[in-house]
Amino acid sequence: MRTFLALCCFAVAGVAFADDPTFEIAIRDHRFVPQEITVPAGQKIKLIVKNEDATAEEFESKRLNREKVIPGRSQATIYIGPLKPGEYPFVGEFNESTATGKIVVK
Amino acid sequence: MFATAIIVFRETLEAALIASIVLAATRGLTGRRRWIGGGIAAGVAGALVIAALTELIAGALQGIGQELFNASILIAAVAMLAWHHLWMAVHGRALASRLRRLSDSVRQGGATIAALSIAVSLAVLREGAETVLFIQGIATSEPLRNVLAGLALGAAGGAALGALLYLGLVHVPVKHFFKLTGWMIVALAAGLAAQAARFLEQANVLPPIVPELWDTSSILSEASLPGQLLHVLVGYTSTPSGLQFACYAATALGLIVASRWRSAAAAGRPPQAHAI
């Protein structure tokens, strides 16, 4: 626990204000727009997900190891990577039949 | 209705399994059902409040409020489980030998049972708030009857799996019982610590160290039922980061070493007046 806390302090000081490449995805009628985005490999990415629907959605990707609830008509920031080249699918867990997409890393 | 049930089931599962492990681990302590039941009820009430405040929490602290909130809840739960585990290191043997002779409640649990009750209520609160948001959303497009049926079915499914786990655990011979629940508590705590680490990474508060240590998603998908069960029970993650792995290992090793040390120290001391 002590190591963990020490790590926290170190990290807050080190990385919180870095200027990372930013990408945007919208959620509209329980679909991601666009459904596919291409991002550079080997870099931390700031992903902004704008939920334009009135209802909440949960952005989830097992491959990216991320999940975040996004309330209706609001936006969320999710940091991912640095990633290796490949395809990283994600879903909107609350509407999995329509809300699917993927991040292509090149 | 079934789509609703599946999502509710998924959200309920973690809380249900944690509640049943805790209920098993508090065997032999008086008032445990009341305490754990109270923890679940408090968690449900808290979930309704948190769901109502989601927007406020998500928008707080430059948009990383939700991650910091979740990470704090998880770290608090880890602390409660750790407290119990270290308490058992001193009192476990006496509890087990007493349990062998008597089947019912034999001892005041005091602070440790309260700690576990808090751990359960935090698990219910976190997963419950997500369920509430999901139900609110689906209720705008589906007939209420279907939504409620899906909610009931999914929650019953989660509770049934929790009950199965509990029934399986109480059939373990008393000799090995607390050793087993002790290991389960350690694995659970380590898994929750790794989840907390992931939220802090996602918020860019902590670096992942290594973004993806390995990828076992082709062997065991986290979306599958066995994958989900292992995720809750032992913290299985198909693509863990270096930070998650480090937090998992530090929590598990820390608990194992501290509990051995406490147990040895207690064995060297004469029994206390209030001990069994």
Q: What features would you describe in this structure?
A:
The complex is a heterodimer of chains A (106) and B (276). In chain A, a hairpin with a 4-residue loop joins strand 5 (57-61) and strand 6. Chain A has one helix at residues 2-15, and strands spanning 22-28, 31-33, 36-39, 45-51, 57-61, 66-70, 74-80, 86-92, 100-105. Chain A has a single domain (20-105), classed as Cupredoxins -  blue copper proteins (Immunoglobulin-like, Sandwich), CATH 2.60.40. The relative contact order of chain A is 0.23. Chain A contains one helix and nine strands. Chain A has 106 residues and is mostly beta strands. Chain B has helices at 2-25, 32-52, 54-63, 65-101, 111-138, 144-170, 174-202, 225-234, 242-268. In chain B, helix 1 (2-25) packs parallel to helix 6 (144-170), helix 4 (65-101) crosses helix 5 (111-138) and helix 4 (65-101) runs parallel beside helix 9. The radius of gyration of chain B is 20 Å and the shape is globular. The mean pLDDT of chain B is 90. Classes of the chains: A mainly beta (106), B mainly alpha (276). The A-B interface holds A 1, 3-4, 7-8, 11-12, 14-16, 18, 20, 44, 46, 54-58, 62-66, 68-72, 74-84, 93-94, 96-97 and B 3, 7, 54-55, 58-59, 63-64, 66-67, 130, 133-134, 136-138, 140, 193, 198, 200-207, 211-212, 215, 217, 221-223, 237-241, 243-244, 246-247, 250-251, 254.
What's the tally of helices of chain A? 1
Please bin the fraction of helical residues of chain B. over 70%
| Percent of residues in beta strands of chain B | under 5%
Spatial strand sequence of the major β-sheet of chain A: 3-9-8-5-6
Q: What is the CATH H-level superfamily of chain A?
A: Cupredoxins -  blue copper proteins
Q: What class would the helix/strand composition of chain A place it in?
A: mainly beta
- Supply Rg of chain A: 15 Å
Annotate the secondary structure layout.
The complex is a heterodimer of chains A (106) and B (276).
Chain A: H1 2-15, E1 22-28, E2 31-33, E3 36-39, E4 45-51, E5 57-61, E6 66-70, E7 74-80, E8 86-92, E9 100-105
Parallel strand pairs in A: 1-4, 3-9
Antiparallel strand pairs in A: 1-2, 4-7, 5-6, 5-8, 8-9
Chain B: H1 2-25, H2 32-52, H3 54-63, H4 65-101, H5 111-138, H6 144-170, H7 174-202, H8 225-234, H9 242-268
